[in-house]
């Protein structure tokens, strides 16, 4: 599956209605609040619509007859109505603000949970900074629309429809003339909106790119400083910033296109009402009071339309953000759990059967790999850099599925194991161990449900039984030694030790060490070797190492080169294969 989120996003075409329907599902549980919100909008718009009618009535019946008591009475009614509109307006913002915040919360959780479900290939193909921008920035665009614009949007629509109905009912011909410019606005909006959305999508993509650039340079700050290449990253950042700036200008211009066009047509409509209205009064078909009301209704129709111009732009931004978010939400993990297959009797612990694999479609890295691992034995994978050792180990741990062939775990297709079952049976110590902020204890118990409730004393007893006591002793404050994922308060070797303890404590059937001792001194390495020898007799160990002394005790050595795996037999033969490969390259 192609997990690249930034591929072809500009060409993507999602129907706005379909996108909106999906988005609204996120607030399906907010029906009551939305209903209340709608009621406040209807009251607000209703009050706005009745206002001009009352003003017209007051002019025709009380101002012209100079009945000031009547004028005062109706002025009081109008004041009451406007105060009520103020109160309903306040509740409207409060209700919708709450809905939008809850929506933002749900949306961020949904994206984060989806990202957590996705396989390693997804993270290979997307930059962390861009993903962060989607979770933070793009969701915020949707939040802004829902908290600030949606109710205004609906309110404006209701007011417009009401005002349009009044315009047509008071005088059909004048009404039709007044509304004619709106048809042009509608056509213009329909034609221009996809282009505006595209501009906004491009802008969000560039903002994501900028975020990725920041993330990359922060992650690599040491290399940047050591090589004095600040200028290089400054230049890269400047380019990304420039691209983001240009796309923001483009999006801003696109978003602003609606306001002047709507303004132009609104002005034209008012001119039409004024000219045609005065003509109708001159021939005795209309009254001054009615024209004042009429003018107010035309304003009530076109003012919200002008507001809609700005709101529509916000809507396009939100929809562009939603497209980027749904691209994540629509991703499916293609490493699905398959139905259980029959177990092959007397099978090896793990078996590769004619396995091919490539990170990109059509570009296989591993070709026709066949081998099996027996219970309780130690295996070594050796070979030149880039030969395919880590890739083979990643397939053993099912970080990826083969493009061809099969992998059997305990005689059953590895794909038929649930993630929990599989990770319980296979422990993988990666080349670059991942630690998170906390303590040594937090990190060695990561993913270990069995000991998570043990207090330090009980855990230390378990550690002692597993032979890890001396390793723990290398940390000043033992289990409580602080660990910080970002800074370097512990060495790389110490990180590898923590990852080692984490994996051993889980007591897996199969333990893979990918260059897991590369940064550990020889004495400590001997200690690790003793711990590995002390593991249960059932435990199978796969060691990937460049330092050959690490694999002295291996029962079998595999030589992995150019994506092919052969049995190397003795250590001597393995060494000759390595040397031959070095000479030929
Ligand atoms: N995430 C990835 N995406 C695309 N290609 C990759 C990826 N990881 C590795 N490769 C490619 O796969 C090939 C095998 O890499 P692999 O990491 O398995 O080699 P290795 O034998 O473990 O090397 P080393 O000894 O340096 O760790 C290399 O050509 C590498 O460029």
Automatic annotation (TrEMBL):
GO MF term set? ABC-type oligopeptide transporter activity; ATP binding; ATP hydrolysis activity
Q: Where is the ABC transmembrane type-1 domain?
A: 35-316
Q: Which UniProt keywords apply?
A: ATP-binding, Cell membrane, Membrane, Nucleotide-binding, Transmembrane, Transmembrane helix, Transport
Under the heading Pfam families, the entry gives: ABC_membrane (PF00664), ABC_tran (PF00005)
All residue ranges annotated as the ABC transporter domain in the record: 350-585
UniProt-listed InterPro entries: AAA+_ATPase, ABC1_TM_dom, ABC1_TM_sf, ABC_transporter-like_ATP-bd, P-loop_NTPase, Type_1_exporter
Q: Where in the cell is it found?
A: Cell membrane
List cellular component terms (GO): plasma membrane
Gene3D superfamilies registered for this protein in UniProt: ABC transporter type 1, transmembrane domain (1.20.1560.10), P-loop containing nucleotide triphosphate hydrolases (3.40.50.300)
Bilayer disposition of the protein:
Multi-pass membrane protein
Q: Establish whether keyword Transmembrane is in the entry.
A: yes
Q: Which residues cross the membrane?
A: 34-59, 71-91, 150-170, 176-196, 243-265, 271-297
The family database entries (PROSITE patterns) matched by this protein are listed as: ABC_TM1F, ABC_TRANSPORTER_2
Q: What is this protein called?
A: ABC transporter ATP-binding protein YfiC
Species source reads: Pedobacter quisquiliarum
What gene is behind this protein? yfiC
């Amino acid at each position: 599956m192609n997990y690249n989120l930034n591929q072809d996003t500009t060409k993507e075409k999602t129907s706005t209605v379909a996108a909106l329907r999906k988005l609204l599902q996120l607030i399906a549980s907010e029906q009551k609040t939305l209903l209340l919100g709608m009621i406040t909008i209807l009251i607000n718009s209703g009050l706005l619509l009745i206002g001009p009618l009352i003003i017209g009535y007051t002019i025709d019946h009380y101002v012209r007859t100079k009945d000031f008591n009547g004028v005062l009475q109706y002025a009081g009614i109008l004041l009451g109505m406007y105060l009520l509109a103020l109160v309903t307006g306040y509740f409207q913002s409060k209700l919708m603000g709450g809905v939008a915040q809850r929506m933002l919360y749900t949306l961020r959780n949904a994206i984060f949970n989806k990202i957590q479900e996705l396989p390693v290939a997804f993270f290979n193909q997307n930059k962390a900074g861009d993903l962060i921008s989607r979770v933070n920035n793009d969701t915020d665009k949707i939040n802004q629309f829902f908290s600030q614009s949606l109710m205004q949007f609906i309110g404006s629509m209701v007011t417009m429809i009401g005002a349009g109905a009044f315009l047509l009912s008071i005088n059909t011909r004048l009404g039709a003339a007044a509304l004619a410019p709106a048809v042009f606005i509608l056509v213009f909006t329909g034609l221009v909106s996809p282009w505006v959305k595209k501009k906004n999508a491009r802008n969000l993509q560039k903002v994501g790119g900028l975020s990725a650039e920041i993330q990359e340079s922060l992650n690599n700050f040491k290399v940047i400083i050591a090589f004095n290449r600040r200028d290089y990253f400054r230049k890269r950042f400047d380019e990304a910033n420039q691209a983001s700036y240009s796309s923001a200008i483009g999006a801003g211009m696109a978003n602003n296109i609606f306001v002047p066009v709507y303004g132009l047509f609104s002005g034209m409509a008012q001119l039409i009402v004024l000219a045609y209205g005065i003509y109708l009064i001159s021939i005795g078909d209309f009254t001054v009071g009615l024209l004042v009301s009429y003018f107010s209704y035309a304003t009530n129709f076109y003012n919200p339309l002008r507001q809609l111009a700005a709101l529509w732009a916000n809507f396009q931004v939100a929809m562009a953000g939603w497209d980027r978010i749904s691209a994540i939400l629509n991703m499916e993990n293609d490493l699905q759990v398959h139905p259980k297959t029959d177990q092959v009797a007397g099978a090896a612990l793990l078996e590769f059967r004619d396995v091919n694999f490539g990170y990109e479609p059509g570009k296989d890295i591993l070709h026709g790999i066949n081998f099996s691992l027996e219970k309780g034995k130690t295996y070594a994978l050796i070979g030149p850099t880039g030969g395919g050792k880590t890739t083979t180990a990643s397939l053993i741990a099912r970080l990826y599925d083969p493009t061809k062939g099969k992998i059997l775990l305990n005689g059953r297709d590895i794909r038929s194991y649930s993630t929990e079952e599989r990770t319980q049976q296979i422990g993988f110590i990666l080349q670059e161990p991942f630690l998170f902020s906390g303590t040594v204890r937090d990190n060695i118990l990561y993913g270990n449900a069995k000991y998570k409730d043990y207090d330090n004393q009980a855990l230390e007893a378990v550690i002692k039984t597993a032979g890890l006591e001396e390793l723990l002793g290398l940390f000043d404050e033992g289990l409580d030694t602080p660990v910080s994922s970002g800074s370097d308060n512990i060495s790389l070797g110490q990180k590898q030790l923590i990852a080692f303890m984490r994996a051993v404590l889980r007591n897996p059937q199969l333990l893979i060490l990918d260059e897991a001792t590369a940064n550990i001194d020889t004495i400590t390495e001997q200690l690790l070797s003793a711990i590995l020898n002390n593991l249960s007799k059932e435990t199978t160990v796969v060691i990937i190492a460049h330092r050959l002394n690490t694999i002295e005790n291996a029962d079998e050595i595999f030589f992995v080169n150019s994506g092919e795996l052969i049995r190397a037999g003795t250590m001597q033969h393995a060494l000759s294969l390595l040397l031959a490969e070095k000479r030929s390259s």
